[in-house]
Amino acid sequence: MTPSSYGRLREDRIRFPQVSKTPRVGSIVLPGPGRYHTDVSSEQEQYDDRHDDRTAPTDRTGNPDSADQAEQTDRPDQISQPDRIGQSDQPSKTGQISQPDQPGRPDQSDQVTISDVAKAAGVSIATVSRTFRRPDRVNVNTLNHVRAVAERLGYHTQIIRPRSESNLAGLIALTVNDLNNPVYSQIAHGVQRECGRRGFGLMISETEGSITLERAIIKRSIPHVDGMILCSPRLSDWEVRKAAQSRPLAVMIRMVGGVQSLYADDTPAINETIAAIARLGHREVTYLPGPDRAWGNSLRVRALQSACHATGMRLRHTQCAYPVGRHSARAFAEFLRHPTTAVIAYNDEVAYAFMRFAHDHGLDVPGAVSVVGIDDIPMCEVCSPTLASIAVPRQEMARMAARKVIDQVLHNADGSTAPVVLPSRFVPRDSLGPVR
Questions:
Q1: Yes or no: domain 267-391 corresponds to CATH 3.40.630.10
Q2: Which of 5, 43, 88, 106 is the most exposed place for a label (fewest CB within 10 A)?
């Protein structure tokens, strides 16, 4: 690989900075439960300032730590532990991060430096730097070797105490796709209430469903917040895990391994919905889907396929019907070409838009077609006819997400990232009726 292609490879990667409220003189890794170790000296920082990240590091034998090796380590199972704790205030005389003066503490002037580690390990200073600051960019064998040498020499053995509440910003960040969507506004309300109860402020950002905008918002937020909640993020699992290295983080309406995740299980409610539709005499149902990249949409498709198979119901699909507008109009027109007596929509917005479309085209709801939405937003109870829906426990999920993140910030969490799964429920209303 040429240096220029190596540079392009590096530039394409997302970089979530490891930051703190104090001047940056080092980073922190978490090698084991309850112990936070220093790993970067000011000498290392000066070296990194003189060497651009896009330049491939070489060891002392002249062999580069190639981009191919770095690429092999860009996998979720090789991502380092989160840097979630504030950093010490001042560097010591030798460049190592020092602790506040404590009685009986030995002199630190003879500590091992990053140069000593590089010499003993037979690698460059840049490789040692990346081992501790950006372990995802180091070959796993080199990573383990350098860490073993550093441990043997006594490098990064000072303990840094977790941040106290007095050093916190008192702010949690929440990202949502669309604040005009009642689902996200209700989630924001639930997060806000829990943050307020715990004495934290809330910063809400709208991503508009754009991966690029979402990525930029997260990077801008990290220096100013203590924790983050990503609601239905579009980023890859790998990028979400990288963000979780920088701040305590929870993900809503999605499952990401190794990150605190909260979502609703729609499967039982969908089974109940299909059973109710079948009892009313329907034999075919059309699903008006959401975006393919939406995590919840794929879960609903699988649940619908399983439920329809179990009841002998025929399931049809249209093209994506969300967001409402141009996409939904094409999906509704497709339905008219192959109509069924029942429809289940990706969410209540799509379901309500479809009911209006059906009315405009002379189709009575529920006389000609029964309609069921998902989310159970307040509009379901006031539209005509009232809209049958699958209720998702958004407010409870939002409060739990805020609680989980704040507990991580305050070091009250038990360390578990087991997903929190809440059940949805079927709510029958007037838009669902028997076949006529």
A1: no
A2: 106
